[in-house]
Amino acid sequence: MNFYKIILNVLSLFLVLLCNFDKVESVKKISPENSLVGINRDNIKIYLNNCHLTIKGKGCYEINRNFFGKFKHLKRFVKSISFEGNIVSIGDYAFSYFTNLRSVKIPKSVESIGEYAFNCCFNLNSVIFEGPSSVKTIGSNAFRCSDIVSINIPKSVESIGKEAFAHCDKLKCVKFEIPSLIGKIDSRTFAFCQDLIEINIPESVKEIGNSAFYHCDSLVSVKIPDSVERIEKDAFSDCISLTFINIPSSIKLIDSYAFAGCNLSYINKIPDSVEKVAKNAFDDCINIIFDPIEYLNQMVIEEYKN
């Protein structure tokens, strides 16, 4: 087994030297215990040891879409990643299509995770934010099509981009650290998370965007806080396991198809604060009951009596 690992590491080094001699400044002797792949022009060292990738930098540094250059062949070896030094940003596409990646720890020094940073890491099931986290932004499609089972969103996060966790089929649990700074659940952020069972939306959120939870087939419980003013088009459309929803007194807009195709049987009330409910907001909710009727906005009543 040790002989096989040595051969594998030597072959990796050979490919790096063959394809990336312009990227590598120095290389150490390869061994199963300490396999330095290369040192890039920013003096950031890249190690691959037993399928674990370690990136070591001095001072502040970031990983961007061009960080690996022609080192892209490493994608098929890496199962876990760790960072050393003061990494401040994991940029756009940094680890996109690392298809064998299983786990990653986001250091507390990281302030941003870029668009598509871990997109299509099909086997990625563990993402841990080391605390206290400094991450402020999670870019669109950042963890799209990964195998994450649960995720804790640090309280430092101010925004999560479109489709950041879309198509995470095994995602069951999403927790937001309190107090949260997130003002919007963006478009399709959790769309097609078919195993997602429940979510407590933080009280900082004012808007639930288009298709934010579209086709979350297992979603049975959603707590919408009093801060939310807008539920946009298709926000919970086709959440076929969702039977109950609480409409808070802060709501002003329930847009087209917001709850269409859900299995809703009961809504506590639609408050007088509501300014507009699209006529098809509750399409195909054939068992829906509004209670108590006397509290319903008259406009809403007329929409659903016809």
Please name the defining characteristics of this protein:
306 residues; 9-stranded mixed beta sheet; elongated; single chain; 5-stranded parallel beta sheet; mainly beta; 2 helices
SSE topology:
Blueprint: H1 2-19, E1 36-39, E2 45-49, E3 52-63, E4 80-90, E5 103-106, E6 112-113, E7 126-129, E8 137-138, E9 150-153, E10 159-160, E11 173-176, E12 184-185, E13 198-200, E14 207-208, E15 221-223, E16 230-231, E17 244-245, E18 253-254, E19 266-267, E20 276-277, H2 298-305
Parallel strand pairs: 3-4, 4-5, 4-6, 5-7, 6-8, 8-10, 9-11, 11-13, 12-14, 13-15, 14-16, 16-18, 17-19, 18-20
Antiparallel strand pairs: 1-2, 2-3
Q: Mind explaining what this structure looks like?
A:
The chain is mainly beta and 306 residues long. The protein has a domain at 197-306. Helix content is 8%, strand content 24%. It is built from two helices and 20 strands. Strands 1, 2, 3, 4, 5, 6, 7, 8 and 10 form a nine-stranded mixed β-sheet that branches. It has a five-stranded parallel β-sheet with strand order 12-14-16-18-20. A four-stranded parallel β-sheet has the order 9-11-13-15, with no helix packed on it. Strand 2 and strand 3 form a beta hairpin. The longest helix has 18 residues, at 2-19. It is elongated, with a radius of gyration of 23 Å. The N and C termini lie far apart (73 Å). Residues 13-34 and 291-299 have low confidence and may be disordered.
